[in-house]
Amino acid sequence: MEIDPFIFRLSIFILSIFIGYYVVWSVTPSLHTPLMSVTNAISSVIIVGAIIAGLSGDSQNIFNTSSIFGFLAISLAAINIFGGFLVTQRMLRMYKKKKKDK
Amino acid sequence: MTANLSAIFYLISGILFILALRGLSSPETSRQGNFFGILGMIIAITVTFLSIGNFSSVFIYVLIFLLIGGLIGSFIAYKIPMTAMPELVAGFHSLVGLAAVFVAIAAFLNPEAFRLGSPGNIKLSSLIEMSIGAAIGAITFSGSIVAFLKLRGIMSGSPITFKGQHYINLLLGITIIVLTFYLCNTQTEVFFWRLIAISFLLGLLLIIPIGGADMPVVISMLNSYSGWAAAGIGFTLENSALIITGALVGSSGAILSYIMCKGMNRSFFNVILGGFGATDQTLSSQRKEQKPVKSGNAEDAAFLMKNASSVIIVPGYGMAVAQAQHALREMVDTLKKNDIKVSYAIHPVAGRMPGHMNVLLAEANVPYDEVFELEEINNDFANADVAFVIGANDVTNPIAKTDPQSPIYGMPVLDVEKCKSVLFVKRSLSPGYAGVDNELFYRDNTLMLFADAKKMTEEIIKNLN
Predict the structure, then answer these.
(1) Which letter does DSSP use for residue B118 in this model?
(2) How far, in Å, CA of B375 to CA of B215, rounded?
(3) pTM value?
(4) Residue A102 — very low, low, confident or very high, per pLDDT cuts 50/70/90?
């Protein structure tokens, strides 16, 4: 009997939870806020689904109900991607070490 | 691009996302980590474009919508003040949730584009996965909106509770499962819409009973939900980047919630059930008779600190509200010029979200190696001369160690009372969020500085010079 591809995806999922568990515990508490903003940004990789929906139409039929939802989701996810990564960058740039000469 | 090749690229982008989180293990590697994250995202988006290969006029529209979102996002990222990070993160969570709902709807209406079958004849497993994705996405969306409104102060931070609340939530939860079942059996559109509507309602009801002080837990929890929603959609799209990311974000949020719960000594289950802070009024009205309090002014505080050899600063949310972090840094600079050793002590639940205080101090140019977590610094209070508590309250209350009757009993607290003297910058003697009187106010070695945190700090600087 063949293994359902779903099982492989489930394996990826479960293993990733474990990776997430260990990686996140190693995040230093002082960077927990950037952690949240960057997870925000990366979870917006959901944009790939939105792009598939948006591109489903053709030149004659650009806007159908499905693709409109796709377009809206593209914008929402893009706000998160740009906003999330940039605000994380902005925060991380502020973390500085003590200057020796002080 | 073949499906296999694009799958490998999605895997690479998933790995880059893992490295992005891994980078956050120290501030030195964090910027590189963020770069990995950006790279992973660029790869995922490019691969999607190439694998669909539709570069007709539709493509232009996709780019336009991408650009609109990108511009809005960039604008927000540059404008947002650091004190408003909790609201921003809550707002972002809601967008992830809504995007998940929209993608699920798009996939349901046009399953051919996602290779899931045809309308009315969608694969059973896909239908279940997209229902899960849509339901969690909708809960995340409406829940985050409530969290956003509470954090922004548009909605009162006090919990909204009513009788039978938990039963209604339970009922709604069961309804969602039943609707998923009917949807799978009949493939009828109406069940899908009802499923989404009820999930929106559930998200709303789940968050309204949770009080303002529990917001760090709520934000972390919604962070986790947004991850599970993404993972659900990832299964529908058979996309490993999305599955990996969803799992990462889901566990990240769960761990943060756990850390926050531990910081407040509350069980996770308890917070999810909500209704905290409902005891605020009753407890504060029971306050004991007026006890003598020593209060001082900036001059006294400056004198005490000038004669100290080590000072520990304990910042709390009040510092953020008063925007006192820059003045505080200036004060510390002056102290350091007088050869006084200064460090900062941060409680896990200080502020309105995990790590909020650290960001605010970093913004004020406080070097991160002067900032310590509770476990790292708690033993140092006994050897320090002055503890300068600014805008924090409950997290310093020794009652958490002594009185089993107290609602905050068992909560880890900073041992500020062990310092030779304690300076407490506060506007009044009012109790903190937990509604508990802080016995520290009445101790002999405590000097209360009744004033706005920023004004008081500025006054102290004047007196130090």
Answers:
(1) E
(2) 23
(3) 0.90
(4) very low
